[in-house]
Structures are given as structure tokens and as C-alpha cells.
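INFO  loader      accepted 1 record
INFO  loader      residues=191
INFO  predictor   begin
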Amino acid sequence: DPAAWRSLGPGALLGGSFQAHDIAVTPEALAKLGKEAPYRAKIDFDANLEAAGGGGGVKLDIRGLTGGALQQAIDTHLEASIDAHGAKATGGVKTGAVTLLAFELHSPLTRDDLLTGNVRTAALGGTVALAKLPAVGEPPPAVQARPLLAVFGRHDVSAGTLAGTIQVGGTIGIPTAVAAITAYNITIPAS
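INFO  predictor   done
INFO  writer      dumping C-alpha cells
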């Protein structure tokens, strides 16, 4: 009975956790879920919920993601949390030892906002960057163009770097982004 549960308030929740590791993502598994997609990966997922709805967090690792436009395997790591002070998410994407992307997102969205359904109007801010997040006041670091573009099957670039950031704003329901990406000394061999 939903009304009876609501009347108990958040104190009825003692907290909890959930873990799932080595979940195989395959085109066949996705088809069983009604999604036609050529992706393969292994997923680890950990979630925790604090007592009385005090907050919680998740960690998600996607290892060896390939398929579709991804011609080389990528690994993705995400950590997100929410509490009485707000929500935040951090993570990154890499191929082998090369970091391709890093991000940090934040919102004043609290656990109470989440419980009352006030999600879409919460402010959103943060940065997505090639390679790694720049230090405050520093230019964005550069990533080698060759390994980054090879992930998408582009092998026609032999040298050069890419640098850039995407500033995220707006709200969770209507996010905005302003991107500044710069290519330096890109070399394409003569055919």
C-alpha cells in the first residue's frame, strides 16, 4: 500500500546496498531487452543507500565496451552521489592506458528534492574535458589525436593533439553545453 509506506516517512528505511559484477552485455542480451544494438562489454555496478533516505551513491564500471562506432575497446568509470547538500558525478573514459575523457558534474539537487520529484528543474553544472579535467585557471590538457580517433575506426590521422572542454549548464531536464575543442598539428599522411 503506497499510502501506508509514505506515512512511515524516510525513517522506515534502514539503508542498503546492491552489487552486481561481471554482467555480460552482448547483442543477444540486449535483444532480449528489446534493444537491437551491436555492443559488448562487462559491467560492474555498486549502489548504497544510507539510513532514513540520508543519501546514497553508485559506482559503475563498463569494461571493454565495443560495437557500433567503437572500433577499439573503451573502459568507463562513473561515481555519483546524492545527499542533503546536493548531487555530484565524476568519471572518465579510457582506451588501454590512454585517458580520452574526464568529467565532473554537480547539482544542488538534494535527496529531498529527489524524493519529492523535483528533479527536472534542478540546476546542473560541470565540465567534460578531453584527457583530464584542467586545474582552475589552466588551459585544457591535450590528448593525442591518433588513439582518440582510432577508437572510432579513424586511422587516417598519424600525429597531432586535441584539447578542449565542454561546460555543462542549464537544468537536469534541459541541459546546455558550450564546447571549445582545438586541434593542434593534425597530420594526415598522403595517400
